[in-house]
Amino acid sequence: MSTKEIHGLFGDEEILLASAKELVSKGVHVKDVFSPFPIHGIDPVIGVPPTRLHIAGFIYGLVGMGLALFMFWFTLIMDWPMNIGGKPNFSLLQNLPAFIPVTFEMTVFCASHGMAVTYFMRNTIYPGKKSWNPDLRTTDDKFLIQIDLSENSMSAEEIEGILKSTGAEEITQK
Amino acid sequence: MDYTFKSSTKRLTLGLVGVGVLAIVYAVLTEIPGQRIWANLLVNSYFFVGIGLMGTLWMAIQYVSEAGWSSGFKRIPEAVSQFLLIGGPILLLVLFAGSHNFHLHHIYHWMDPDLMDPNSDHYDSIIAGKAAYLNEPFFYARSVAYVFIWIAFTVFFRKSSIKEDLEGGVGIHKKSYGVAAAFLVFYGVTSSTSSWDWMMSIDTHWFSTLFGWYNFSTMFVSGITMFALIVITLKRNGYLEHINQEHIQDLGKFMFGASVFWGYLWFSQFMLIWYANIPEEVTYFIDRWENYLVIWAALPVLNLALPMLLLMDKSAKRSFNMMTIAGVIIIVGHWFDVFQMVMPGAVKADWGVGILEVGMFLGFLGMFLFVVHNALSKAPLVAKNHPYLDEAKHHHV
After folding, report:
1. Torsion angles phi and psi, residue B348, rounded to 5
2. How far apart are CA B49 and CA A9, in angstroms?
3. Which domain range does residue B178 map to?
């Protein structure tokens, strides 16, 4: 049986973090880490690039702001001019303060929903999606380092040695 | 490393104070109306007292919230708060000069006794209706009480913090926690009432229920920006070795958040009054629209849009240069915010930003920086026995 992946299971995220640092410093490429909650500071260690989600969020916010202003301009200024508190008609600018609260809401709405949907798409999460956790205990109280042997020049024994010496509770080959 | 107050810094800050004095002399010689000079004194003393007060408030918030991350630069807000001891009395002097007994200026229009006298030609029934709150004895009693009770809290925090350096233990910290909670309650009420008294009563007919918070947000963002600028300057000069970009980023988050908070309150106050368009409320903004449009329109740009866009990115909040740029914009913007709170009621259209205004701002800035540097040099730059100091050293965002 040829081994493709090594899974090191840990009982504590701090131990996992130290182990991941040790592995990376010895030149091992960590494929992924599974954890029931975000581990503070793990991303730069295993080489996960910084997220660009907030940039997308900013753009969605701008879109939401534009949509709201277009909606106000079309419905209340252009198509059916409304008397807004006795302010001059036919002018978006002179009625703008009255539109700001809803424009703000629309900005937040589009930014938050846009970011949530982007997150789901980027991670291919959808209803009925089957979990790809190598070990279901990582959804409960265990933490796992996943190492792909084809990405590493080191032998399975050497990697297992590092994992064991840095406190892995359980090491499985797949 | 302890902070030394270099003689070059001393000369610079005292030189700025000299510029302020020269600006006043210049204004007197060129016959700029006394009202405008006093109004400038009020703008600057209120603005810098607000910043000093934020030093005290910041310490109280850190005690009550048991915050650890900020304990590494605790001495900076502490030094800033020391300005209250000088700025508070100056502010009181400006207020007393307006009393109808001295009548050196007429910024507080309601102090004119004729307005309250039903038999006088100048009788103003709206102002007379506020006499129960807006009368000179009560006004001065309140003002003196605010300033001296704030100073008492400030002196307590400073003394106990220095005592903690010598004695250690957690006893002093726990005691400060209790006093800080009391200060927050006292400040919660007086932050609103002091801004009604000193700022809102200038436009006596007008009132706004949001005014206290709006003033607080102006002080809060200016104060935190001042801390950040001082921390960055000290850092650039090789002090505060365990303060790193993580702490600067958190200060940047405060600047960003407080700027948005200011924008929210500023806009909420404006929007409701603009929309309802009730004559006694809307006059306040008509004064500003007609005579102060440039400054008034610049406020949301300087104090909301620019800080928000400049500080939005994580790397911007970690960059000393970007934080300094945004910080200077915020300080200038909020100085103009106070400026347009005072000037329309004090000098109507007869305003200007010239040698007097710039000089006096620099003068007060010099005085403020002198006090801060002096206080920084009087105590170790790191509160070494603060119970949470270790947490600050390992702070990681």
Report:
1. 55, -130
2. 57
3. 7-382
Cβ contact, residue pair A97, B277, below 8 Å:
no
What is the least distance, in Å, from the CA of B64 to any CA of chain A? Answer: 26
Work out how many domains chain B is built from and give that number: 1
CATH code for residues A5-49+141-173:
3.30.70
B396·A41 Cβ contact <8 A:
yes
Within a domain: B360: yes
| Inter-CA distances, A66 with A72, B227, B267, B290, B326, Å | 10, 37, 20, 30, 26
Cβ-Cβ pairs closer than 8 A, A with B, add up to: 17
**Best mutation site among A43, A100, A105 for testing chain B: the one with the most B CBs within 10 Å?**
A100
The whole-angstrom separation of Cα B194 and Cα B246 is: 35
Residue A37 confidence (pLDDT) above 70: yes
Residue A40 with chain B: CB contacts under 8 Å: 396
Quote the CA–CA distance of B225 and B330 in Å, as a whole number: 7
- Residue carrying structure tokens 């307006």: B98
User: Above 0.90 for ipTM, yes or no?
Assistant: no
Whether residue B390 lies inside any domain: the answer is: no
- This prediction has a pTM of 0.91
Are the Cβ atoms of B277 and A58 closer than 8 angstroms? no
Distance from CA of B380 to the nearest CA of A (A): 32
Pairwise CB contact (< 8 Å): A85 & B276: yes
H or E element in which residue B78 lies: helix B75-81
Average pLDDT over residues B207-222: 95
Nearest CB to A85: which of B267, B277, B396? B277
Residues of A in contact with B267 (CB under 8 A): 97, 100
Percent of chain A with pLDDT over 70: 99
**Where in chain A are the domains?**
5-49+141-173, 53-122
Q: If DSSP states are collapsed to H, E and C, what string results for B306-359?
A: HHHHHCCCHHHHCCHHHHHHHHHHHHHHHHHHHHHHHHHHHHCCCCCCCHHHHH
Confidence tier at A2 by pLDDT (50, 70, 90): low
CA distance B365 to B305: 25
B267 and A100 in contact by Cβ < 8 A? yes
Q: Is residue B393 part of a domain?
A: no
Q: Do B271 and A58 touch (CB under 8 A)?
A: no
CB contact under 8 A, B396 and A100: no
Q: Does B193 reside within a domain?
A: yes
Kindly state the tokens that stand for A1: 């049986």
pLDDT 10s digits, B282-338: 999 999 999 999 999 999 999 999 999 999 999 999 999 999 999 999 999 999 999
A6 three-state secondary structure: strand
Rounded to the nearest angstrom, the minimum Cα separation between B37 and chain A is: 35
